[in-house]
């Protein structure tokens, strides 16, 4: 991990991309607006949880554990956003 600032920027970038995709989904399928807005709210909650986790590693004085913590954190972040994108795709496929 380069630094905490870059990690937070990545979290925000992933959120922005998801929100943009949600806005496009609302534009093309206005009938599903409520469901898409619900997904957007989940994404914002995820962002807040990830920020809290990023700011509070479990063992801040043990460098080895901190590296492992942030490696696991990054995997969790990627899988969480992939899950949200998957949910949005399933919502868009439904007629």
Descriptive account of the structure:
The protein is mostly helical and 95 residues long. The chain is elongated. The chain has helices at 4-28, 33-55, 63-93.
Mean pLDDT, rounded to whole units?
93
Structural category: mainly alpha
Element pattern in H and E: HHH
> What's the helix count?
3
Supply Rg.
Answer: 16 Å
- Helical fraction equals over 70%
The first-to-last residue Cα distance is 42 Å
Helix/strand layout:
Elements: H1 4-28, H2 33-55, H3 63-93
In short:
This protein is mainly alpha-helical and 95 residues long. It is 83% helix and 0% strand.
Distinctive features:
mainly alpha, 83% helix, single chain, 95 residues
């Amino acid at each position: 991990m380069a630094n905490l600032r870059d990690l937070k920027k990545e979290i925000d970038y992933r959120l922005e991309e998801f929100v943009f995709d949600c806005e496009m989904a609302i534009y093309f399928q206005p009938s599903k607006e409520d469901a898409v807005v619900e997904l957007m709210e989940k994404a914002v909650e995820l962002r807040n949880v990830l920020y809290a986790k990023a700011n509070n590693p479990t063992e801040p004085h043990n460098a080895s554990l901190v590296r492992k913590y942030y490696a696991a954190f990054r995997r969790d972040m990627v899988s969480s956003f992939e899950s949200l994108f998957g949910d949005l795709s399933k919502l868009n496929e439904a007629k």
